[in-house]
Design brief:
The structure holds two protein chains of two kinds. By secondary structure, chain A is mainly beta. Chain A is built from no helices and eleven strands. In chain A, strand 6 and strand 7 form a beta hairpin. The chains are: A mainly beta, B mainly beta.
Chain lengths: 112, 112
C-alpha cells in the first residue's frame, strides 16, 4: 500500500524566510505528484503537478521537486508571506492506478 | 473551483435519514471522485467513477453508495446517516492525459 508522509506536521516561520516542505512516499512507481494548498474551511487549490518523467516544476515563488529513487518530493517557498499561511498537502497517483493518495499535510504559519 | 460545483455546501441531518450529495462538472472529465476529510485522517477516498455507470470502491466505502448516470454528475448517497459520517466531503475530477486533479469547494455534513 502506498503511503505518503509529510514532515513536519506544522511549521511556523517569520515573514521573508525561504522554506522547504517535505513529502516522502514508499513506492517509487508513481505516475505523478501534486501539491495542493488548503485554507481553513476551504477546498483544495492545486499548486504544482509533476509528471513522473519530470524532476521539478516552478510557479512564481514556488518550486517543487521530485526524486522517485529516494521517494521524496520537496516544495520550496521563496520569500514567504503571511498570505502563504495554509495547510500544504502532497498527493500522488501510483502507476497503474487513477486514484490520488494524500499525505496528512503540513500546516504553515508565516508570522508578520 | 471553476468547472466543478458541489451541492449543498452545508447540511445538517438526523441519524438514520438518507442524504445525497451532488457533484457537477462542466469539464467533461472522465474520472470523478468522492473524498472525505477528517482531522487526524486526512483525505480518504470513498468511491470513484471512471465513466458513466462505471464506479468502484475506495478505502472507506462502507455506508456509502454512488451513481453516475451522466458524465457531468456524480452523486454520493448515505443510505442511513450515522454520526461517524459527520465530515467534510470533497468531489474531484481528473482526466487521463495527466491525472491532475481539480477539487470542488466541499460539503460540510453534520449528522446529529
Amino acid at each position: 500500500k502506498q503511503e505518503v508522509t509529510q514532515i513536519p506536521a506544522a511549521l511556523s516561520v517569520p515573514e521573508g524566510e525561504n522554506l522547504v516542505l517535505n513529502c516522502s512516499f514508499t513506492d517509487s512507481a508513481i505516475y505523478n505528484l501534486q501539491w495542493f494548498r488548503q485554507d481553513p474551511g476551504k477546498g483544495l487549490t492545486s499548486l504544482l503537478l509533476i509528471q513522473s518523467s519530470q524532476r521539478e516544476q516552478t510557479s512564481g515563488r514556488l518550486n517543487a521537486s521530485l526524486d522517485k529513487s529516494s521517494g521524496r518530493s520537496t516544495l520550496y517557498i521563496a520569500a514567504s508571506q503571511p498570505g502563504d499561511s495554509a495547510t500544504y498537502l502532497c498527493a500522488l497517483v501510483r502507476g497503474g492506478s487513477e486514484k490520488l493518495v494524500f499525505g496528512k499535510g503540513t500546516k504553515l504559519t508565516v508570522n508578520p | 473551483d471553476a468547472g466543478i460545483t458541489q451541492s449543498p455546501r452545508h447540511k445538517v441531518t438526523e441519524t438514520g435519514t438518507p442524504v445525497t450529495l451532488r457533484c457537477h462538472q462542466t469539464e467533461n472529465h472522465r474520472y470523478m471522485y468522492w473524498y472525505r476529510q477528517d482531522p487526524g485522517h486526512g483525505l480518504r477516498l470513498i468511491h470513484y467513477s471512471y465513466g458513466v455507470k462505471d464506479t468502484d470502491k475506495g478505502e472507506v466505502s462502507d455506508g456509502y453508495s454512488v451513481s453516475r448516470s451522466k458524465t457531468e454528475d456524480f452523486l454520493l448517497t448515505l443510505e442511513s446517516a450515522t454520526s461517524s459520517q459527520t465530515s467534510v466531503y470533497f468531489c474531484a475530477i481528473s482526466e487521463l492525459e495527466d491525472y491532475g486533479y481539480t477539487f470542488g469547494s466541499g460539503t460540510r455534513l453534520t449528522v446529529v
